[in-house]
């Protein structure tokens, strides 16, 4: 502790850079699944030693720790089979495997009994903070023991198949077969599973409570000194706590905590707490409480949100007629042991199908199969939008003391014992048939859940306000109207929903009677039920859309799966404009996907485009006939043909039997156009045919105008003087013969 203070003072004096350098964590890589290292490998046990001691263990390649939350990473997949107990963890560190399904740390249960991971406080220094991730912890005499005041965090960890046993003649306690915390430290569990752990406490000698006893507490998770327990998106299932006494045995089920407990989006199921008395030395008492959760103490709360508590059992067994068996709170047991109140709350959850039983020849007392309050005045168990249902062996809920149940509304109770005074939206005495609650199964999401039937009284009868977020236990969005009714939220942990992917598709613009390309839709079933065959294309313009390659309409869709179908836009209804339709399952009118398309016309025009080629300015081309057809189905509006564009004046309509007329279905008319350029160059225009209804069709018109050739030079009509000039030169000749010859040539020249 002194060295930490010195480092802090030094940081203030010389700057944060030096502090950052001194506070770096070591990255230690476990590169073998062997239990022991070699000079070139680092095994898990030596990695822990390196982090504890800040040294490299002899005979290993492990990097020395740095005393500041060292990070141990297991890189190979597979099982690390321990040959002896691992070193205790007494410094801050994280240990990360490749995943709970691929990395396993396995003990030697039955050969040498020890817990897999043990966390303790060093002789000097702060309580260690430890994080375990991405691994399975199994086959130990207990999974994880945290004996410090530091926090323990588990993420993507499976703790399963661990066993704790204790046998004594007088006092025997077994606890925390999965996870044990004995020092009141926080325990945070997320995306993890604690399952299949078992504990057995056995007392053989005579005597009654509390000098002689056998007690088994928290087979999955046990926090004995008031630590805060947080569980998120995790499963605690099929853990067993057995207390076997001669004359006194007591047991509490999977989770036992004397501090604050917060559970969100998780499932607590199939756990069993059984207390049995042999009564070999006289009549005895067997007490079983809280098969799923036992919350004990005072000034603390149990907070449940978006959870499923189901199939848990508290069972008391006697062996003689003089014995007494007590079993209460098969799902949840709240036991106030201090003057300060012990409160509970549950929102958006399902608590159903839990069991209490008292068997054997002795007298038996059972109460509150789902929730039992053993609390004083001023304490409440408050519920909202939660299902309490189908308790086995007793009523769903009970509060024999002064504590009370209170409803914040929108709950459903198959009895009358869980809601106190019913209020807005509450339903009591709902039959199991009307609830139609499905089995615990994979309905999607990280944990198993129970979904109400398609026509259940729970569907759309809840509220999304104040129930722990906008999603259900699986992470599916709330407020999905199946009926619709209310705000669309279902009572309980599961929101029935169906979903189309994509959620919308715009097919663009099409001419009437033509067909677009297809869009593939996935129709997802998140209801928790098998859906009957039938996908509906509905909405105002359903007839303008058509399905093909349809794997939905004639096929039932199993739970948590999807079907596919192709949809195309094929406008056939009269008129132009936007068409709207939707996709939905036949079990729900709720629009799952929006379908849109735009009909831009239902008249056609050919040819389009048209090039008139090249012609001289002032020389019109021959006329081209354009045909207008009404593709239907109705009669078009009055048509108008017109030329438009930059060079519209250099084209001309020579014949027009469309303008001023309407066209019946499949009717035609014609317009003739010629190119008559008045100036040279490339020319462009459009022929537009418009009808309302009918739309506008255009054909692009092009042509090239060339200039005419230049005119020929004018003919010579007067003397040019060439002959006269030549004759003048001839007079200068000296001889008569030369002058005669010159005149002869000159006379052949133009005048």
Quick description:
With 751 residues, the protein is mainly beta. The strands form 8 sheets. It has a 21-stranded parallel sheet that branches. A 9-stranded parallel sheet has the order 6-8-12-17-22-27-32-37-40, with no helix packed on it. Strands 10-15-20-25-30-35 form a 6-stranded parallel sheet, with no helix packed on it.
Structure description:
By secondary structure, the protein is mostly beta strands. Among the domains are: 23-116 and 128-137, no CATH class; 499-601, Immunoglobulin-like; 603-706, Immunoglobulins (Immunoglobulin-like), CATH 2.60.40. It is built from 6 helices and 58 strands. The strands form 8 sheets. The protein has a 21-stranded parallel β-sheet that branches. Helix 1 (2-14) packs antiparallel against helix 2 and helix 5 (722-730) runs antiparallel to helix 6. The longest helix has 13 residues, at 2-14. The protein is elongated. The termini are far apart. The model is unreliable at 1-22 (pLDDT under 50).
Relevant terms:
21-stranded parallel sheet, 6 helices, Immunoglobulin-like, 751 residues, nine-stranded parallel sheet
Question: What is the radius of gyration computed over CA atoms, rounded to a whole number of angstroms?
Answer: 45 Å
Q: Which assembly state applies to the chains in this document?
A: single chain
The description of the largest β-sheet is: 21 strands, parallel
Fraction of residues in β-strands: 35-45%
Tell me the span between the first and last alpha carbons: 134 Å
Helix proportion:
under 10%
């Amino acid at each position: 502790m002194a060295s930490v203070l010195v480092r802090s003072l030094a940081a203030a004096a010389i700057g944060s850079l030096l502090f950052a350098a001194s506070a770096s964590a070591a990255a230690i890589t476990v590169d073998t699944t062997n239990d022991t290292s070699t000079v070139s490998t680092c095994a898990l046990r030596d990695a822990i030693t390196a982090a504890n001691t800040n040294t490299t263990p002899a005979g290993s390649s492990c990097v020395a720790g740095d005393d500041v939350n060292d990070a141990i990473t297991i890189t190979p997949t597979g099982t690390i089979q321990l040959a002896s107990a691992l070193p205790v963890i007494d410094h801050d560190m994280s240990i990360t495997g490749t995943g709970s399904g691929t990395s396993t740390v396995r003990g030697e249960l039955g050969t040498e009994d020890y817990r897999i991971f043990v966390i303790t406080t060093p002789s000097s220094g702060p309580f260690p903070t430890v994080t375990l991730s991405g691994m399975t912890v199994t086959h130990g005499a207990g999974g994880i023991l945290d004996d410090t005041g530091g926090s323990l965090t588990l993420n993507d960890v499976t703790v399963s198949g661990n066993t704790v046993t204790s046998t004594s003649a007088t006092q025997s306690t077994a606890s925390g077969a999965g996870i044990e915390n004995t020092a009141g430290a926080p325990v945070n569990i997320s995306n993890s599973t604690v399952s299949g752990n078992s504990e057995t406490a056995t007392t053989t000698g005579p005597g009654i409570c509390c000098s002689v006893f056998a007690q088994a507490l928290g087979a999955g998770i046990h926090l004995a000194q008031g630590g805060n327990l947080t569980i998120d998106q995790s499963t605690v299932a099929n853990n067993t706590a057995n207390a076997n006494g001669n004359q006194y045995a007591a047991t509490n089920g999977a989770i036992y905590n004397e501090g604050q407990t917060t559970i969100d989006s998780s499932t607590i199921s199939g756990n069993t707490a059984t207390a049995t008395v042999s009564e070999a030395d006289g009549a005895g008492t067997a007490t079983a409480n809280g098969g799923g959760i036992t919350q004990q103490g005072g000034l603390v709360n149990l907070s449940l949100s978006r959870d499923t508590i189901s199939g848990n059992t508290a069972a008391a067994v006697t062996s003689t007629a003089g014995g007494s068996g007590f079993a209460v709170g098969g799902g949840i047991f709240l036991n106030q042991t201090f003057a300060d109140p012990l409160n509970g709350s549950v929102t958006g959850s399902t608590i159903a199908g839990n069991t209490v039983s008292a068997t054997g020849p002795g007298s038996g007392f059972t109460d509150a199969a789902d929730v039992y309050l053993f609390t004083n005045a001023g304490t409440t168990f408050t519920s909202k939008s939660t299902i309490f249902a189908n308790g086995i062996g007793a009523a769903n809920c009970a509060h024999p003391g002064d504590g009370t149940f209170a409803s914040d509304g929108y709950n459903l109770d198959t009895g009358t014992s869980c809601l106190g005074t019913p209020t807005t939206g509450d339903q009591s005495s709902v039959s199991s048939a009307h609830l139609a609650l499905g089995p615990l199964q994979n309905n999607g999401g990280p944990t198993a859940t129970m979904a109400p039937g398609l026509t259940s009284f729970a569907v759309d009868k809840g509220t999304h306000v104040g129930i722990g977020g906008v999603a259900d236990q699986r992470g599916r969005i709330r407020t999905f109207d199946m009926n619709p009714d209310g705000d669309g939220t279902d009572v309980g942990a599961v929101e029935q929903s169906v979903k189309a992917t994509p959620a919308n598709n715009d097919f663009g613009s099409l001419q009437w009677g033509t067909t677009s390309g297809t869009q593939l839709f996935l129709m997802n079933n998140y209801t928790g039920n098998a859906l009957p065959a039938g996908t509906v294309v509905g909405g105002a313009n359903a007839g303008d859309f058509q399905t093909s390659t349809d794997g939905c309409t004639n096929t039932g869709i199993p739970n948590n799966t999807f079907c596919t179908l192709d949809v195309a836009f094929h406008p056939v209804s009269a008129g132009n404009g936007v068409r709207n339709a939707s996709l939905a399952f036949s079990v729900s009118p709720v629009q799952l996907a929006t379908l849109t398309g735009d009909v831009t016309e239902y008249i056609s025009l050919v040819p389009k485009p048209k090039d008139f080629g090249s012609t001289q300015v002032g020389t019109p081309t021959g006329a081209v006939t354009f045909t207008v057809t009404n593709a239907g189905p109705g009669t078009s509006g009055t048509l108008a043909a017109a030329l438009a564009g930059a060079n519209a004046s250099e084209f001309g309509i020579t014949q027009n039997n469309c303008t001023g007329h309407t066209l019946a279905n499949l009717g035609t008319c014609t317009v003739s156009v010629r190119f008559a350029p008045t100036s040279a160059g490339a020319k462009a225009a459009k022929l537009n045919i418009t009808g309302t209804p009918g739309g506008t069709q255009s054909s692009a018109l092009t042509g090239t105008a060339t200039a005419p050739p230049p005119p020929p030079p004018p003919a010579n009509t007067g003397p040019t003087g060439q002959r006269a000039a030549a004759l003048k030169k001839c007079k200068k000749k000296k001889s008569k013969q030369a002058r005669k010859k010159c005149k002869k040539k000159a006379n052949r020249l133009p005048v």
